[in-house]
Amino acid sequence: MTDCGCEKARRDLEEYLRHEVCKTQHSDIAEHLENCAECSDEALVARTLTDVVARACKEAAPEELRDVVLARIREVQASH
Description:
Arc Repressor Mutant, subunit A; mainly alpha; elongated; 0% strand
């Protein structure tokens, strides 16, 4: 394994967190994150944000909001 450096780790961070990089790249980025506090902090923020968004997407929107959005969609569709 070789440390891939900050530029590559940051460029490929989202794919790394979603396990969308090859095994070699994954190992290289993981090694870099273990040894670079700044990139490790950035990965923690990205991972936390991803988790929060994923949890929020699992919740249903309030019925009132749904009704307002659907009404607005119908208004826009009717005007076109």
